[in-house]
Amino acid sequence: MALANSKTTKDAGQLPSPASRSAGLARSAGAKDTLKIDRILLPLQFTERSVDAARCAAGLAQRLGAKVSLLHVIPADKQKAGGFSDEDYPLSPDRSTIQQAIIDALGTVPFRRLTLAGDPARQIIEHARKEGAGLILMPTRCRRHRFRLLDSSVTAQVIRRAPCPVWTSAKDSLKLRSIRHVLCALALAPRSVKVLRWASQLADHLGARLTIVHSRAGVPTAHGACYWDLNAARAAWAQQDIAALQNTTGTHARVWVTGGEAARAIAAAARHSHADLVVIGKSGSFWRPSMHRTTPYEIVREAPCPVVIC
Q: In what order do the strands lie in the sheet with 254-259?
């Protein structure tokens, strides 16, 4: 793993590189977006992790000046005939206690509560789109599936189809914490401009420093010295692409370029740099995940801190 300051990447550009790729990344910027998170959508399961998520949402809402929407979805197979209301589904004593803890966690943050029935993932996505949520915040258990493309958890489905960024964690790291360091993982795909800009603007709002990491697919070096040269050239091309992205977005972050499987490499970079938050982009295609066929859900599973997928 090599750490480089973005200002030093000009030397790397002396090696042969696909200049059209960097130009394409820069052209994909489009209009300059500004970070706008007026409402945070918080799906509830009435577990202890929901209380931690509420505390995290409250802290973010206070920093960003946002409101919070609490959403509880009753699966369709549990819905009573003839419609429903909150009174039709009274909470157990334990869940009532958790609900009160969630309300207490939100404190003075403006919030509203809503109960819907149907498929949880679909209702979360549709409600986020309907009310223009700027962020969905929800924990996940990140259960491993033998066929990773068939991950069907609610969070995995929301990550793939949400109209806004999703803030999640597979570990007990959604507890309220100070975000001092944001690590932005870039796949160097057309969406990377948007991902870097969003991460940079969030870091500015939270008063955090920003670091960029890119995991490149390495080539085995046991078959000859020429493979060392190819790996070095690929690292140089990555540095050049990242420099172009930083020039487009106006960022001046430090850069990690590392090799190996993306999910583990990003997790290692997050631990090494003591990152408090990792920001990544969505896969460009369901059947062809970005970042060397690594799905965002795999990165969430490995990361030691919360991850935002945008």
A: 2-5, 254-259, 209-216, 181-185, 277-280, 307-309, 166-168, 135-137, 39-43, 67-74, 111-117
Pairing of strands 135-137, 277-280: unpaired
Number of domains in the chain: 2
| Same-domain status, 28 and 44 | no
Dump the DSSP string for 254-300.
EEEEEES-HHHHHHHHHHHHT-SEEEEPPPS-SSS-HHHH--HHHHH
pTM of the model: 0.81
- Judge if 64 and 118 occupy the same domain: yes
* In a shared domain, residues 303 and 184: yes
Packing angle between helix 192-206 and helix 48-64, nearest 10 degrees? 80
190/282 same-domain check: yes
103, 133, 163 - which closes a domain: 133
Domain that holds residue 265: 2-33+175-309
Question: CB of 83 within 8 A of CB of 125?
Answer: no
Strands 67-74 and 39-43: parallel
No. of helices (H) and no. of strands (E), the chain: 11, 11
Contacts of 149 (CB under 8 A, 6+ apart): 286, 287, 289, 295
**Could you read off the pLDDT tens digit of each residue along the chain, which spans 310 residues?**
555 444 333 333 343 444 555 555 554 555 456 788 999 999 988 888 889 899 999 999 999 999 999 999 998 776 554 444 444 445 556 778 888 999 999 989 999 999 999 999 999 999 999 999 999 999 887 655 544 444 568 988 999 999 999 999 987 666 667 899 999 999 998 899 999 999 999 999 999 999 999 997 654 444 555 555 677 888 889 999 999 999 999 999 999 998 888 899 999 999 999 999 999 998 654 333 344 456 888 899 899 999 999 9
Cα-based distances in Å from 263 to 126, 170, 258: 29, 13, 12
Q: Are residues 219 and 187 in the same domain?
A: yes
